[in-house]
Design goal:
The protein is mainly beta. The protein is built from one helix and six strands, in the order αββββββ.
């Protein structure tokens, strides 16, 4: 015979529901994509009409700053022009 104290600490396993089956995306549906600027060392960007190369990237006070080769100060990423990179968010 079990007391109420024993029942309080008894582990009850809930009934498991079957996992939903993963379905492959339909062939007619295009994958989700984003087009974003990608700043990495060696990447070519335009700043104030000049072609520059990215040296490295910094995060300062929550802002993305890009250091350019041949320029002493970091530059705000929003002031740079770069080709957008296509990122696929959904596998096929």
């Amino acid at each position: 015979m079990q007391s109420s104290f024993d029942e309080a600490f008894e582990l009850h396993t809930p009934a498991r529901s079957p996992r939903p089956q993963k379905t492959a995306p339909s062939p007619e549906e295009p994958p989700q994509t984003l087009h974003l600027a990608l700043y990495k060392p060696g990447c070519h960007v335009k700043w104030q009409g000049r072609a520059m190369t990215v040296s490295h990237v910094l995060l300062r006070r929550g802002r993305l700053m890009v250091c350019l080769e041949g320029h002493p100060e970091p530059v705000d990423a929003e002031s740079l022009t770069t080709p957008l990179t296509r990122l696929v968010l959904q596998r096929r």
